[in-house]
Amino acid sequence: MMVWVNLLPWREARLLRRWRQWRMLIIGSLVIALAVNILWISVLVSTNNHLQRAVSEAGAARQQADKAARYRQEALQQQLQLLQRWQQKQHQYLQSQAWLDFVERLGGRLPQSVWLTALQKTAASLRFAGLSLSVDDIALLTRQLGELGLFRRVNGGAIEQHTSGALSFTLTAMLEGEKEDE
């Protein structure tokens, strides 16, 4: 007679133990992989946040630099306008001073028998009207005006004799560096 021994529960227990070991190994591997992925994602999120912060700070710095550049540009524009106005005033002052000097010199150059009755300035010329007792004095005045160096040329105009014997005359002096009126 033979004795029947059932070895299946022992085999089943061993098989269950191996399945538990493999299951633990797989679950452990999955937990480790999940932990590594979570760690990797947190590093990426942290790096992304850092980069976004750096980009926003760079954008803010660029906006501030642009604003400062606009302020500097406006300040330079205002300084340029002030300088141009000052130069314009200086130029006007120098022109006024030159005409004042001219008028002072003109009084000393007038022959004794010549009186000026009108002085009219345009952009390109200066027109003199006056009275004289002799044509020679009018010619002398014309020559002296030409010698001043302010005029390109001096043209004589009409000369009329009045009943009192005085001569009325007009002279047109073309300014140096200016175009003639048309």
List the defining traits of the structure above.
Gyrase A, domain 2; 2 helices; 63% helix; 182 residues; rod-shaped; alpha+beta; 2 domains; four-stranded antiparallel sheet
Write the layout of secondary structure elements.
Layout: H1 8-109, E1 114-121, E2 125-132, H2 135-147, E3 151-161, E4 167-175
Antiparallel strand pairs: 1-2, 2-4, 3-4
Description:
Helices cover 63% and strands 20% of the residues. With 182 residues, it is of the alpha+beta class. It has 2 domains: 8-108; 112-175, Gyrase A, domain 2 (2-Layer Sandwich). A 4-stranded antiparallel β-sheet has the order 1-2-4-3, with helices on one face. Strand 1 and strand 2 form a beta hairpin. The longest helix has 102 residues, at 8-109. The mean pLDDT is 88.
**What is the gyration radius calculated from CA atoms?**
53 Å
* Total domain modules: 2
Strand % is 15-25%
Mean pLDDT across residues: 88
| Largest sheet data | 4 strands, antiparallel
Structural class, from helix and strand content? Answer: alpha+beta
Elements, N to C (H/E): HEEHEE
Q: Care to count the β-strands? A: 4
Summarize the model shown:
63% of the residues lie in helices and 20% in strands. With 182 residues, the protein is α+β, with helices and mostly antiparallel strands.
